[in-house]
Each structure stands twice: as C-alpha cells, then as structure tokens.
UniProtKB/TrEMBL annotation:
Pfam families: FAD_binding_4. Residues 40-208 form the FAD-binding PCMH-type domain. This is FAD-binding oxidoreductase. Its cofactor is FAD. Transmembrane segments: none annotated. Signal peptide: none annotated. The keyword Oxidoreductase applies. Belongs to the oxygen-dependent FAD-linked oxidoreductase family. Keywords: FAD, Flavoprotein, Oxidoreductase. Coiled coil: none annotated.
C-alpha cells in the first residue's frame, strides 16, 4: 500500500471510529505507540486509539481489508510482538472498571491498570490477584497466566477469569467463557494473544482488606547468608506466606533510597495474609540473618501492595528473561551467587529474583488453561537494561543457562519482556500445548491477522 493510498484509507477509517487514527508523524501517534518498556519500540503503519468494542471491530475489519497485521498495546510493560508495518490498536482509553461486591467480580476494560481495580475493590473489602506492579495492564497480565504477589495463598490470576470479550479476525464480538467458545477460553488464559483483540474481562476477587507485607533490604556482602537463610525459611512457611528474594543493582540516581543507591543489595519481599502477629513471628529468622539496611515490613492496607516489591514507576528500557525452577537447593543458591553475587564480577543483571511458588499455585484449576507450570517450586526472573534488540541479553541469558540444571525447561510468559525476552516466549509452553494452541489459532485466525509467533512457527503464506 502506497503512502497516498494509506493516508486516504486512514482518513476513511477515522470517519468510522470514535477514537483517533494517526499515521507516523501525525497527532498523538507517538503517544499511541509508546509503552512502559522503552526497549519494545513499535513502528506501525498507523495507530488507532480505540474507545470501545465498536472501534476495535472497525479497526480489525479495516486491517483485514488492507492486508495489515494487528498489534495491541495497553500499558506496554511486556515485550509484545512488533507491529511494524501493521495496524496498532491502543486500548488505554478503554479503562472502565466495575466491581460487583455481591458476586466478588470486577469487570475491566482492555486498557485498565491494576491500581484502578485495587482501589475500586478495596471499597468493599476485596482485592484482585495483581502482580508486583499495579501499573501493569490487568488484561495482558492475567491472560499471560498472572503470577500474583499472593499466588501461594490464592493461586494463578488466570484461574479467576470468568469471561472475556473478544473481537475475532472476522470482525465479530464474542463472549468467551467456560461454556461458550471454550477452546478460546482455554487458549487465551495462558497464551494471552494471537486469537483476537480482548476488549473486556471479568475476574473474581478475593476478600482482603489488609496484609503483613513489605521488604527487607540487606547489604550485598551478606548475600550468601541471606539467600541461604531464605531458602531454609521458605521450606516451612504456610500457604498464607508469599515471598521472593532478589539481588538488586540499583543505579546511583535520584529517587533510589541512599542505602541502596549504586550498590548490590539483597531484597526479601514478603506478603503474609495471616495476622500481623503471626507474620512478625514468622519473619524473625530472616530479620536475624543479617542487619538490614532497610525494613519496611509491617501491617499495610491491601491498597498498598505495591510496597512489597517497590517496582519502578517510570518507563525504562529493559529485557526480561525467566526460568521456572523445580528446586532451589543449596547448590542452586551457590550457582546463583556465582553468576550474579558480590564476587561474580557480573554487573549486567539489574535484578535476579527467585520467587517462592507452590501452595495454591499447584491447585488443579476448575477449568483447563494453557498454562504449564503446575509443580514448579520457584520462578527465576532476570532483568537487564536494554537499548536495542540484543542489548542486555547476554548477561541475563548467561544467568539462566547457569541455572538450567534446576529448571523445568519452561519459561514464564509474563516474565519475558523486551525484544530479547519476547523472542523466547515460545519456550513458555510444552510441545503439546503449542500444538493445541496452533489448532485453536487455525480455527479462529487462519490468515494470521493477529501475529502469534510466541507459541507457534510461521506457516508458508501466512502473516504469522
């Protein structure tokens, strides 16, 4: 399609949708394609700022008529698949949230961030199963599996999905649920994208008004002592206790607390849903492991759950790599320390986090989903700064390769961000799941309107 033809066609689409339609260099085009992860840069031929399902249907029909692939961006935290040369749907305007306290359900639009749901649900003493950053989009996080801060207590966020609104490749709006379009309900909850454009989602909430949570920060030279203490500690904690440990190399910049700035630190994150008294007693062994630089653990309202991990709140370029672990024994701790600890000489990994799984995460789901991580005991996340498609990858991948002996062989889709991480997303699924996903894809999007190379190979003549 020539630039002149595309300009005329975009103008026609602009008359059929309520939201803005822009070409590169026009209007809010830069804003529409921008995301939290600055390394995941998109270069679409045009962008549509959708305001609702009608705009999505019109944009999808337009893309099909003009042989353009369709990409979707809400908050842009993950890597996403490049929408280069295609049509980009920005869903950030679709930010409606409704909470039904009677059914303990939240209905969210495609552009909703978790903090919106957290604040709305808290009015009724309820909480969603959000991840470590409440700035992340609720839909993409949940449909990628959704590993909550409170996962050991309540399970995967994907298992709380009750229904999804979806616009398919033929321009129809479908309701997807366990008893309606069940194949899509299975595929979307785990594979996240590639089958259509999600316009809304209904998720179950849990009763939770407060918790005992926060972080313990220790100096990097005490990393071995703290990591071994945490490894022994998690072996005996109840299902109500959720935690992770991270080796952090935070930059020497304004906004980073002085005790943590420009040095290696160890961050133990804790979220306990029992009483503050039981949480205090449980945490004593960790507090005795070494003198903390900073201790923020205490009773907090559910609305302050972001304080557990204290994730960045400003956009930055990064790559994420992950590995699900069968175990995290003494030798695994030593291997992690050898790769990124204080004596490793490795400064390319900004964060290496090991998260304790098990508990409710191992529960048999009520409805099957495309998520292959039951039985994983821990997850490992490697976050590296990135300025391009390959930048930052070697350090993170070296760490993951070193930890492979303790791995399940699978990665976690939600922990694969940036260009380097996104390129490995097919490794989040077993061969059997990838094959089943390909069958669902062939039924609902045979022409490959919605790129899906995160779980299946390109086929001749398709746009996948």
């Amino acid at each position: 399609m020539t630039n002149t033809t595309l300009t005329a066609a975009a103008a026609d689409l602009g008359r059929r949708v309520r939201g803005p339609v822009s070409l590169p260099g026009q209007g809010d085009h830069e804003l529409e394609r921008a995301g939290f992860n600055l390394a995941a840069e998109l270069r679409p031929a045009l962008a549509v700022g959708a305001t609702g399902p009608a705009d999505v249907r019109a944009a999808v029909a337009f893309a099909a008529d003009h042989s353009l692939t369709v990409g979707v961006r809400a908050t842009g935290h993950g890597g996403g698949r490049p929408a280069d040369g295609g049509l980009l749907l920005s869903t950030r305007r679709m930010d409606r949230v409704h909470v039904d306290p009677r059914t303990r359900t939240a209905s969210v639009g495609a552009g909703v961030r978790w903090q919106q749901v957290i604040d709305r649900a808290a009015r009724f003493g309820l909480a969603p199963l959000n991840g470590s950053s409440p700035l992340v989009g609720a839909v993409g996080y949940t449909l990628g599996g959704g590993l909550p801060v409170l996962g050991r207590t309540f399970g995967w966020a994907a298992d709380r999905v009750r229904g999804v609104g979806l616009v398919t490749a033929d321009g129809r709006s479908l309701h997807v649920g366990p008893d309606e379009n069940a194949d899509l309900f299975w595929a979307l909850r785990g594979a996240r994208s590639g089958f259509g454009v999600v316009t809304s989602m209904d998720v179950g909430l849990v009763p939770l008004a407060s918790l005992y949570g926060g972080g313990l920060y220790f100096p990097g030279d005490r990393a071995a002592r703290v990591l071994h203490a945490w490894r022994e500690w998690v072996a005996g904690v109840p299902q109500e206790t959720n935690s992770s440990v991270a080796l952090l190399r935070l930059p020497d910049v304004e906004g980073v607390p002085d005790p943590l700035r420009g040095r290696l630190t160890v961050h133990v994150r804790v979220a306990h849903t029992g009483t503050p008294e039981s949480g205090e007693a449980l945490l004593r062994p960790l507090r005795k492991a070494a003198p903390p630089l900073r201790d923020t653990v205490g009773p907090i309202p559910a609305t302050a759950i972001a304080s557990v991990h204290e994730d960045p709140v400003r956009p930055l370029p990064y790559d994420e790599g992950s590995l699900m672990l069968r175990s995290f024994d003494e030798s695994a701790v030593d291997a992690l320390l050898g790769a990124v600890g204080p004596d490793s000489g490795e400064e390319g990994v900004a964060m290496a986090e090991v998260r304790h799984l098990g508990g409710a995460l191992d529960r048999e789901p009520e409805h099957p989903r495309a998520l292959d991580h039951r039985g994983a005991a821990f997850s490992l996340l490697a976050l590296t700064p990135s300025t391009g498609a390959a930048a930052g990858r070697p350090a993170g991948e070296r760490l993951l390769e070193r930890m492979a002996p303790w791995g399940t062989g699978l990665r976690f889709l939600n922990f694969l961000g940036g260009p380097a991480g996104a390129a490995l997303a097919h490794e989040a699924f077993t061969p059997g799941t990838r094959s089943a996903l390909a069958e669902v894809k062939a039924r609902h999007d045979p022409a490959g309107l919605f790129p899906a190379d995160h779980f299946l190979p390109a086929s001749p003549g398709s746009r996948v």
